[in-house]
Design brief:
It comes from Flavobacterium jumunjinense. By secondary structure, the chain is of the alpha+beta class. It is built from five helices and ten strands. Strand 1 and strand 2 form a beta hairpin. The longest helix is centred in the N-terminal third of the chain and has 35 residues.
């Protein structure tokens, strides 16, 4: 069962329990929600591991904000656990709402990575304080999991928009200078909506100010320079896509050498 279907299943169960139930039934529901939270937390940890492995190989993909939000999430879960009998605590509800709003920005408001299904049930109307808090915990952990999953995607495909990442850079000489060939296994997807921006080119620790020309090729694109000095370069750039909600930027960073 995927997370989306799992959410709908939870809502169905909670809708059934939203009317008055005896304590045994409420305890069973809390047990179910706690088990579900532990499952979702394992999924979150899996996406975290993928993300941290990704940024260790490609530091430009690091999102500073996601680490800050993860710390807020951990502290908030701790506060919820301490407040099992105080779900009306306005501060916890306010912090949760603020965190969820910030997480929607991490995933660029992509509907495939939002927990809008949770909004189909007004959990504040649930009879049990503990049920309300366990429901809130699940919503928070799934939102956090989506954020790390989205941040670690190599190829993003959602809402009909496909974004790709550069796999490698190969350097070669041509009759007018030096050519860098950017390759990507999905490089020909949505070519009209793809824009390549070069932020900087670093040679031996110093930024090089060079004119260049970008041309499409069979794999992705060529960046042509009149000349490049010998040495080790670090290329920092951005792949930019436009869609209804605005632009989406994917940073990339590659290392190459000129002999």
């Amino acid at each position: 069962m995927n997370i989306k279907n799992y959410i709908l299943f939870i809502i169905l169960i909670l809708s059934f329990f939203s009317c008055k139930k005896n304590q045994i039934e409420i305890d069973e529901l809390n047990s179910f929600l706690q088990t579900n939270y532990e499952f979702n937390n394992r999924v979150l940890n899996k996406h975290k591991a993928t993300y941290y492995n990704l940024i260790s190989d490609n530091p430009s993909r690091k999102i500073e904000k996601i680490n800050e939000l993860d710390s807020i999430f951990i502290n908030l879960i701790f506060e919820i656990e301490k407040s099992k009998k105080k779900s009306s605590n306005k501060l916890i509800l306010s912090k949760s709402k603020e965190l969820l709003q910030k997480l929607t920005k991490i995933v660029n408001n992509r509907k495939d990575y939002l927990t809008t299904e949770y909004d189909k049930l007004d959990y504040l109307k649930l009879e049990s304080d503990e049920v309300r808090l366990n429901y809130l915990k699940n919503k928070l952990v799934i939102s956090m999991s989506y954020a790390f999953e989205y941040a670690s995607l190599k190829t993003i495909s959602c809402d009909g928009l496909i974004l790709v990442e550069i796999d490698s850079i190969m350097s070669s000489k041509y009759k007018k200078g030096v050519k860098l060939t950017l390759t990507s296994k999905n490089g020909q997807i949505d070519r009209e909506n793809r824009h390549i921006l070069i932020n900087n080119l670093i040679l031996n620790g110093k930024e090089s100010k060079l004119k260049y020309k970008i041309e499409d090729n069979y794999s992705f694109a060529d960046i042509k320079f009149d000349s490049l000095k010998k040495g080790t370069y670090h290329l920092n750039g951005t792949l930019r896509y436009y869609e209804r909600e605005g632009k989406i930027d994917i940073p990339f960073e590659k290392k190459f050498s000129i002999e």
